[in-house]
Each structure stands twice: as structure tokens, then as C-alpha cells.
Amino acid sequence: MMTLQEEQSKAAPGALAVVQALVNTQYGQGRRAHRELTSPEQLRVWLVAHGLLAEGAPVTQGDVRRVFQLREALRSLLRANQETTMLASSIEVFNRYALDAPLTVHLHPDGPPTLEPDLAGVDGALARLVGIVFTAMTDGTWARLKVCRNERCQKAFYDTSKNRSGAWCSMAGCGSRLKARAYRHRRAAHPEE
Ligand SMILES: [Zn+2]
Question: Which residues belong to any copy of the Zinc finger CGNR domain (predicted)?
């Protein structure tokens, strides 16, 4: 059995963890919602901390909008790793960012090759994210990065289960709450069962 801490700290491997962290700059609804990156300064600090932007590079309100748009397209694409199919509109958004992302193959003495952007600033950060997603889609790790099935949560988590059956960001949190709700619904529909 995994402890709650282990379960909640399930991070995607390698660079894909940055994509997961980006998606998780916003999740949840209502009073318990988690929201980061609500200003250019917050976005700048986040991008620098995650190695996507050089210290001192400018970030505008337009950049905040672009990062939000790519983030929500990624969340939608990740949802397809559960029960749904990829939405054409999200594929279109991703492809638009990919079109603006000049990437070149880089080999490394250790570790797999990566796609590196030939751009600086936020444009470069967006391009690098596109490269990370493509690499993860081809090396098989993408399929394990999922969005919590709880519609009111939608947090990204890395499914480490053997049969890739994980559905919730945390069994103790969203998993148990939803199971309890489904049980109550069944009881209400069929009280004599
Ligand atoms: Zn959840």
C-alpha cells in the first residue's frame, strides 16, 4: 500500500514533470480551487524556477494568456489518456503552438535525445513544452499522465499502476469521495438492494 504522501507526490518522470507542474498550476473549483500564474510576474518566476526562461527575460499579459491556452489544451489532451478521445479543438491549439516552435534534435552523452527550441523568451518556453510533449508521446510516458476523473478536480497525476487503471489524483481524496457518492446514488436508486 502506498501512503498518502507517496500517492500525492507521484510526479511524471524526467522533463514531463514540468508539463504536469504546468497543468497543476490550476485545478479544483470553488473555494478550494488552486490557482497560480495569475500575473506576468508570477508566470515569470514560475518559468525561471522550472528552467524554461532565463532570469530577467520579460513576460507580458499576452504571454500569460498564451500559457493558459496551451495549458488548458494540454489538460484536454491528457483527459484522452482516460476514457475520452482527443478533442479536435485541443489538437488544433497544440498544433498552432507547434507551428511556432522551431525545434532541433540534441544528443546528450547520457540520457535520450531531446528537442530544443531555437528561441529565447516565453516563445522558447512554449516551444520547449511542445518538444517535451512530443518526446513523451513517443517514449510512452505521456499515456500515463492523466487528469483526475473528478470533474471538479482535474489535477494531473502520473499513473504508476501496473495495468494503467488509475483514475483519480488521489485514492484517499477524490477516489474515496467519488466512490462514496456513487454508492449513495445506487442506494438512493435501489433502496431495497
Ligand atoms: Zn482529484
Answer: 144-187
Q: Name the pLDDT band for 192 (thresholds 50, 70, 90).
A: low
CA of 129 to the centre of ligand 1 (A): 23
From the CA of 104, how far away is ligand 1's center (Å)?
Answer: 36
CA distances from 109 to 106, 113, 131, 141 (A): 10, 9, 19, 22
pLDDT tens for each residue of 56-97: 999 999 999 999 999 999 999 999 998 778 899 999 999 999
How many CB atoms within 10 Å of residue 13? Answer: 14
Fold of 12-189: Jann2411-like fold (1.10.3300)
Residue 156: beta bridge partners? Answer: 147
- Going 150 to 130 to 55 to 9, the CA torsion angle's sign is positive
Closest C-alpha to 65, from 122, 3, 27:
122
